[in-house]
Amino acid sequence: MIGRIRSQTSEASKFLVDWMEDRTGIVTMLEHFLYEPVPKRGAWLYTLGSATLFLIVLQFITGILLLFYYVPTTDHAWNSVYYIMHGVYFGVLIRGIHYWSANFLMAVIGLHMARTFFSGSYKAPREMNWVIGVILLLLVVGLAFTGYLLRWDQDGFWASVVGMKIGSYSPFIGPYVIHFLLGGDVAGPATLSRFFAIHVWLLPAVLAPFIGIHLYLLRRHGEFGAEFEYTDRLTKLRESQQLEEFARYEADEGEEIERE
Ligand code: HEM
To answer: Relative to the CA of 119, which ligand 1 atom is closest?
Structure first.
Protein backbone atom coordinates (compact mmCIF):
# COMPACT_ATOMS: atom_id res chain seq x y z
CA MET A 1 0.00 0.00 0.00
CA ILE A 2 2.84 2.36 0.79
CA GLY A 3 3.70 2.28 -2.95
CA ARG A 4 2.48 5.52 -4.53
CA ILE A 5 3.70 8.09 -2.01
CA ARG A 6 7.03 6.25 -1.65
CA SER A 7 7.61 6.03 -5.41
CA GLN A 8 7.04 9.78 -5.74
CA THR A 9 9.67 10.73 -3.17
CA SER A 10 13.36 11.15 -3.88
CA GLU A 11 15.93 8.50 -2.89
CA ALA A 12 17.10 10.57 0.09
CA SER A 13 13.60 10.94 1.54
CA LYS A 14 12.67 7.28 0.98
CA PHE A 15 14.50 6.40 4.20
CA LEU A 16 12.44 9.00 6.09
CA VAL A 17 9.18 7.80 4.52
CA ASP A 18 9.97 4.16 5.38
CA TRP A 19 10.97 5.13 8.92
CA MET A 20 7.76 7.14 9.48
CA GLU A 21 5.66 4.32 8.05
CA ASP A 22 7.34 1.76 10.28
CA ARG A 23 6.92 3.84 13.44
CA THR A 24 3.47 5.41 12.86
CA GLY A 25 1.78 3.89 9.78
CA ILE A 26 1.03 7.47 8.69
CA VAL A 27 2.03 6.92 5.03
CA THR A 28 -0.52 4.12 4.54
CA MET A 29 -3.08 6.29 6.33
CA LEU A 30 -2.36 9.22 3.97
CA GLU A 31 -2.60 6.91 0.95
CA HIS A 32 -6.04 5.80 2.14
CA PHE A 33 -7.09 9.40 2.66
CA LEU A 34 -5.70 10.96 -0.52
CA TYR A 35 -6.39 8.40 -3.25
CA GLU A 36 -9.92 7.81 -4.48
CA PRO A 37 -10.71 6.36 -7.92
CA VAL A 38 -12.86 8.70 -10.02
CA PRO A 39 -14.56 8.07 -13.38
CA LYS A 40 -12.44 8.77 -16.46
CA ARG A 41 -15.04 11.06 -17.97
CA GLY A 42 -15.19 14.53 -16.39
CA ALA A 43 -12.57 13.66 -13.79
CA TRP A 44 -11.77 17.35 -13.17
CA LEU A 45 -15.32 17.95 -12.00
CA TYR A 46 -14.64 15.51 -9.19
CA THR A 47 -12.08 17.91 -7.73
CA LEU A 48 -14.76 20.47 -6.79
CA GLY A 49 -15.46 18.80 -3.43
CA SER A 50 -11.77 18.89 -2.55
CA ALA A 51 -11.62 22.54 -3.70
CA THR A 52 -14.51 23.30 -1.32
CA LEU A 53 -12.65 21.54 1.48
CA PHE A 54 -9.46 23.46 0.69
CA LEU A 55 -11.31 26.81 0.83
CA ILE A 56 -12.97 25.90 4.13
CA VAL A 57 -9.61 25.00 5.67
CA LEU A 58 -8.25 28.30 4.35
CA GLN A 59 -11.19 30.08 6.03
CA PHE A 60 -10.44 28.35 9.34
CA ILE A 61 -6.75 29.31 9.21
CA THR A 62 -7.23 32.96 8.15
CA GLY A 63 -10.20 33.32 10.54
CA ILE A 64 -8.06 32.20 13.48
CA LEU A 65 -5.33 34.68 12.44
CA LEU A 66 -7.88 37.53 12.22
CA LEU A 67 -8.99 36.73 15.77
CA PHE A 68 -5.59 37.83 17.06
CA TYR A 69 -6.63 41.45 16.37
CA TYR A 70 -10.42 41.54 15.89
CA VAL A 71 -12.44 42.91 18.83
CA PRO A 72 -16.14 41.88 18.88
CA THR A 73 -17.62 44.99 20.51
CA THR A 74 -19.63 47.75 18.84
CA ASP A 75 -17.16 50.49 19.77
CA HIS A 76 -14.03 48.60 18.66
CA ALA A 77 -15.06 46.17 15.89
CA TRP A 78 -14.72 48.56 12.96
CA ASN A 79 -11.53 50.14 14.38
CA SER A 80 -9.95 46.73 14.88
CA VAL A 81 -10.73 45.81 11.26
CA TYR A 82 -9.24 49.16 10.16
CA TYR A 83 -6.14 48.40 12.22
CA ILE A 84 -5.85 44.92 10.66
CA MET A 85 -5.94 46.57 7.21
CA HIS A 86 -3.48 49.39 7.95
CA GLY A 87 -1.33 48.55 10.97
CA VAL A 88 -0.84 44.79 11.08
CA TYR A 89 1.86 42.93 9.09
CA PHE A 90 0.14 40.92 6.33
CA GLY A 91 -3.23 42.09 7.72
CA VAL A 92 -4.48 43.13 4.27
CA LEU A 93 -3.39 39.78 2.85
CA ILE A 94 -4.97 37.66 5.59
CA ARG A 95 -8.25 39.60 5.54
CA GLY A 96 -8.23 39.65 1.74
CA ILE A 97 -7.81 35.86 1.61
CA HIS A 98 -10.60 35.40 4.19
CA TYR A 99 -12.93 37.68 2.21
CA TRP A 100 -12.20 36.34 -1.27
CA SER A 101 -12.06 32.69 -0.34
CA ALA A 102 -15.48 33.15 1.33
CA ASN A 103 -16.77 34.43 -2.03
CA PHE A 104 -15.10 31.65 -4.02
CA LEU A 105 -16.41 29.13 -1.48
CA MET A 106 -20.00 30.08 -2.26
CA ALA A 107 -19.35 29.65 -6.00
CA VAL A 108 -17.38 26.41 -5.68
CA ILE A 109 -19.86 24.80 -3.27
CA GLY A 110 -22.63 25.63 -5.77
CA LEU A 111 -20.63 24.03 -8.61
CA HIS A 112 -19.88 20.97 -6.45
CA MET A 113 -23.58 20.62 -5.67
CA ALA A 114 -24.43 21.00 -9.38
CA ARG A 115 -21.88 18.32 -10.31
CA THR A 116 -23.23 15.84 -7.75
CA PHE A 117 -26.77 16.62 -8.96
CA PHE A 118 -26.06 16.20 -12.67
CA SER A 119 -24.01 13.03 -12.14
CA GLY A 120 -26.94 11.60 -10.14
CA SER A 121 -24.77 11.14 -7.03
CA TYR A 122 -27.79 11.75 -4.79
CA LYS A 123 -29.27 8.37 -5.76
CA ALA A 124 -28.96 5.16 -3.70
CA PRO A 125 -26.75 4.38 -1.88
CA ARG A 126 -25.55 8.01 -1.54
CA GLU A 127 -28.78 9.71 -0.36
CA MET A 128 -27.37 10.43 3.09
CA ASN A 129 -24.30 12.10 1.59
CA TRP A 130 -26.61 14.43 -0.33
CA VAL A 131 -28.60 15.21 2.84
CA ILE A 132 -25.38 15.90 4.77
CA GLY A 133 -24.30 18.07 1.80
CA VAL A 134 -27.45 20.17 2.10
CA ILE A 135 -26.76 20.65 5.83
CA LEU A 136 -23.18 21.69 4.96
CA LEU A 137 -24.53 24.20 2.44
CA LEU A 138 -26.85 25.75 5.07
CA LEU A 139 -23.99 25.95 7.57
CA VAL A 140 -21.74 27.66 5.02
CA VAL A 141 -24.50 30.14 4.12
CA GLY A 142 -24.91 30.77 7.87
CA LEU A 143 -21.19 31.50 8.17
CA ALA A 144 -21.33 33.93 5.25
CA PHE A 145 -24.36 35.71 6.73
CA THR A 146 -22.99 36.04 10.26
CA GLY A 147 -19.51 37.08 9.04
CA TYR A 148 -20.85 40.08 7.15
CA LEU A 149 -22.01 41.88 10.31
CA LEU A 150 -18.71 41.45 12.15
CA ARG A 151 -16.92 44.30 10.39
CA TRP A 152 -19.61 46.59 11.81
CA ASP A 153 -19.65 49.05 8.91
CA GLN A 154 -22.70 50.47 7.12
CA ASP A 155 -22.61 47.78 4.42
CA GLY A 156 -22.44 44.81 6.77
CA PHE A 157 -24.83 46.31 9.32
CA TRP A 158 -27.66 47.10 6.93
CA ALA A 159 -27.25 43.94 4.85
CA SER A 160 -27.62 41.92 8.05
CA VAL A 161 -30.60 43.96 9.27
CA VAL A 162 -32.37 43.55 5.90
CA GLY A 163 -31.53 39.83 5.87
CA MET A 164 -32.99 39.37 9.35
CA LYS A 165 -36.07 41.41 8.43
CA ILE A 166 -36.72 39.12 5.46
CA GLY A 167 -36.11 36.04 7.65
CA SER A 168 -38.56 37.33 10.29
CA TYR A 169 -41.44 36.72 7.83
CA SER A 170 -40.74 32.97 7.80
CA PRO A 171 -43.83 31.15 9.06
CA PHE A 172 -44.08 30.22 12.77
CA ILE A 173 -40.42 30.33 13.85
CA GLY A 174 -39.30 33.45 11.93
CA PRO A 175 -39.95 36.09 14.62
CA TYR A 176 -38.48 33.95 17.43
CA VAL A 177 -35.27 33.15 15.55
CA ILE A 178 -34.76 36.79 14.60
CA HIS A 179 -35.43 37.95 18.16
CA PHE A 180 -32.82 35.46 19.34
CA LEU A 181 -30.30 36.61 16.72
CA LEU A 182 -30.85 40.30 17.48
CA GLY A 183 -30.65 39.70 21.22
CA GLY A 184 -33.56 42.15 21.61
CA ASP A 185 -35.78 44.24 19.34
CA VAL A 186 -33.12 46.19 17.45
CA ALA A 187 -29.58 45.49 16.24
CA GLY A 188 -26.95 46.52 18.80
CA PRO A 189 -24.13 45.21 21.01
CA ALA A 190 -26.00 41.98 21.83
CA THR A 191 -26.48 41.30 18.09
CA LEU A 192 -22.76 41.64 17.42
CA SER A 193 -21.91 39.33 20.35
CA ARG A 194 -24.34 36.70 19.12
CA PHE A 195 -23.22 36.88 15.50
CA PHE A 196 -19.62 36.62 16.68
CA ALA A 197 -20.33 33.56 18.85
CA ILE A 198 -22.25 31.89 16.03
CA HIS A 199 -19.65 32.74 13.36
CA VAL A 200 -16.56 31.82 15.34
CA TRP A 201 -17.70 29.01 17.64
CA LEU A 202 -21.09 27.48 16.92
CA LEU A 203 -21.09 27.05 13.13
CA PRO A 204 -17.45 25.90 12.78
CA ALA A 205 -17.94 23.44 15.65
CA VAL A 206 -20.99 21.95 13.89
CA LEU A 207 -19.45 22.17 10.41
CA ALA A 208 -16.29 20.18 11.22
CA PRO A 209 -17.99 16.89 12.29
CA PHE A 210 -20.45 17.13 9.38
CA ILE A 211 -17.53 17.41 6.95
CA GLY A 212 -16.07 14.33 8.67
CA ILE A 213 -19.32 12.38 8.13
CA HIS A 214 -19.49 13.62 4.50
CA LEU A 215 -15.98 12.30 3.81
CA TYR A 216 -16.61 9.06 5.70
CA LEU A 217 -19.70 8.39 3.56
CA LEU A 218 -17.74 9.23 0.42
CA ARG A 219 -15.12 6.63 1.39
CA ARG A 220 -17.83 4.11 2.20
CA HIS A 221 -19.52 4.27 -1.22
CA GLY A 222 -16.74 5.68 -3.41
CA GLU A 223 -17.27 8.22 -6.19
CA PHE A 224 -20.40 7.73 -8.25
CA GLY A 225 -19.56 6.21 -11.63
CA ALA A 226 -16.04 5.03 -10.78
CA GLU A 227 -15.13 1.87 -12.70
CA PHE A 228 -15.15 -0.42 -9.67
CA GLU A 229 -18.80 0.51 -9.10
CA TYR A 230 -19.73 -0.63 -12.61
CA THR A 231 -17.64 -3.79 -12.22
CA ASP A 232 -19.36 -4.55 -8.90
CA ARG A 233 -22.78 -3.85 -10.32
CA LEU A 234 -22.14 -5.93 -13.45
CA THR A 235 -20.92 -8.85 -11.33
CA LYS A 236 -24.08 -8.64 -9.18
CA LEU A 237 -26.27 -8.34 -12.29
CA ARG A 238 -24.61 -11.37 -13.87
CA GLU A 239 -25.01 -13.34 -10.63
CA SER A 240 -28.71 -12.50 -10.38
CA GLN A 241 -29.23 -13.32 -14.08
CA GLN A 242 -27.54 -16.70 -13.59
CA LEU A 243 -29.69 -17.37 -10.52
CA GLU A 244 -32.84 -16.48 -12.46
CA GLU A 245 -31.78 -18.73 -15.34
CA PHE A 246 -31.09 -21.55 -12.93
CA ALA A 247 -34.48 -21.08 -11.22
CA ARG A 248 -36.20 -21.16 -14.62
CA TYR A 249 -34.28 -24.29 -15.56
CA GLU A 250 -35.26 -25.94 -12.26
CA ALA A 251 -38.91 -25.02 -12.81
CA ASP A 252 -38.85 -26.44 -16.38
CA GLU A 253 -37.22 -29.64 -15.14
CA GLY A 254 -39.88 -29.99 -12.43
CA GLU A 255 -42.67 -29.57 -14.99
CA GLU A 256 -41.13 -32.21 -17.28
CA ILE A 257 -40.83 -34.75 -14.44
CA GLU A 258 -44.48 -34.11 -13.48
CA ARG A 259 -45.58 -34.70 -17.13
CA GLU A 260 -43.65 -38.00 -17.30
C1 HEM B 1 -18.64 22.13 3.30
C2 HEM B 1 -19.01 21.84 2.10
C3 HEM B 1 -18.62 20.55 1.37
C4 HEM B 1 -17.43 19.89 1.38
C5 HEM B 1 -16.14 20.27 2.12
C6 HEM B 1 -17.58 18.75 0.49
C7 HEM B 1 -16.56 17.85 0.19
C8 HEM B 1 -16.71 16.78 -0.68
C9 HEM B 1 -15.63 16.00 -1.22
C10 HEM B 1 -14.13 16.22 -0.91
C11 HEM B 1 -16.18 15.06 -2.02
C12 HEM B 1 -15.41 14.05 -2.88
C13 HEM B 1 -14.88 14.73 -4.15
C14 HEM B 1 -15.96 15.14 -5.14
O15 HEM B 1 -16.85 14.32 -5.45
O16 HEM B 1 -15.93 16.30 -5.58
C17 HEM B 1 -17.62 15.20 -1.96
C18 HEM B 1 -18.54 14.38 -2.58
C19 HEM B 1 -19.93 14.55 -2.53
N20 HEM B 1 -20.59 15.67 -2.06
FE21 HEM B 1 -19.72 17.19 -1.06
N22 HEM B 1 -18.87 18.73 0.01
C23 HEM B 1 -19.54 19.82 0.51
C24 HEM B 1 -20.83 20.21 0.22
C25 HEM B 1 -21.74 19.44 -0.50
C26 HEM B 1 -23.07 19.85 -0.90
C27 HEM B 1 -23.66 21.23 -0.64
C28 HEM B 1 -23.66 18.77 -1.52
C29 HEM B 1 -25.03 18.67 -2.10
C30 HEM B 1 -26.11 19.08 -1.53
C31 HEM B 1 -22.69 17.69 -1.53
C32 HEM B 1 -22.92 16.42 -2.00
C33 HEM B 1 -21.95 15.48 -2.25
C34 HEM B 1 -22.18 14.17 -2.79
C35 HEM B 1 -23.56 13.55 -3.15
C36 HEM B 1 -20.92 13.57 -2.96
C37 HEM B 1 -20.62 12.19 -3.54
C38 HEM B 1 -20.20 12.41 -4.96
C39 HEM B 1 -20.14 11.14 -5.79
O40 HEM B 1 -20.09 10.04 -5.24
O41 HEM B 1 -20.16 11.30 -7.03
N42 HEM B 1 -21.53 18.13 -0.93
N43 HEM B 1 -17.91 16.29 -1.16
So the answer is: 41
CA-nearest residue, atom 42 of ligand 1 = 133
Residue 42 alpha carbon to ligand 1 centre in Å = 15
Nearest alpha-carbon partner for 100 in 142, 68, 59, 129: 59
| Ligand 1 contacts CB of residue 43 (under 6 A) | no
- Quick one: 7 and 49 in the same domain? no
47 alpha carbon – ligand 1 mean position (Å)? 10
Residue 150, in any domain of the structure: yes
**Which ligand 1 atom is nearest residue 46's CA?**
16
| CA-closest candidate to residue 71, choices 63, 81, 61, 62 | 81
Q: What's the pLDDT tens digit per position in 156-186?
A: 999 999 999 999 999 999 999 999 999 999 9
Residue-number span of the structural domain to which 14 is assigned? 1-33
- Residue-wise pLDDT for 8-55, tens only, equals 777 878 889 899 999 999 988 888 888 888 887 778 999 999 999 999
Q: Domain for residue 211, yes or no? A: yes
